[in-house]
Amino acid sequence: MTTAGHSRANENKRIRQEALREQLSNGKHVEHVIEMVDKISRLEDELDAGQVNRLKIASDLKMRLINKYLPDLKQSEVELQGGITAVDKTRAELEARLRAAGLDPEAY
């Protein structure tokens, strides 16, 4: 696949992910999960085992949906373009450049 095609595919993926993030945000899925957890954790409300189980299943399903379309953003995709140019310099040339910059070459 060409670089331009790869970039286009990444851009399309990013657009779809942003649209899904917005849709999930508008659907208030995260807020629903928080509400369910709050409901389960309120000690003054009496819930039987069946109600707790249903709330747990619903929150688990919502979290799976969220995680499927909104993966952890700890990982980032980075696309670099360009190159690195290697320059060969002698030790004397490097030391001269350091001295010209006001630095002591012996310190490096």
| C-alpha geometry | elongated
Chain oligomer state: single chain
Strand content: under 5%
Q: What would you call the structural class?
A: mainly alpha
Overall mean pLDDT: 77
The helix-strand sequence is HHHH
Question: How big is the Rg?
Answer: 28 Å
Distance between the termini: 44 Å
Number of helices: 4
- Helical content class: 55-70%
Low-confidence spans: none
Number of distinct beta strands: 0
Q: What about the largest sheet?
A: none
Describe what you observe in this structure.
This protein has 108 residues and is mainly α. The chain has a domain at 3-72. 63% of the residues lie in helices and 0% in strands. The chain contains four helices and no strands. The chain has helices at 3-26, 29-41, 49-69, 91-100.
List keywords for this structure.
single chain, 108 residues, mainly alpha, 0% strand, elongated
Overview in brief:
The protein is mostly helical and 108 residues long.
SSE layout and pairing:
Blueprint: H1 3-26, H2 29-41, H3 49-69, H4 91-100
Helix pairs in contact: 2-3
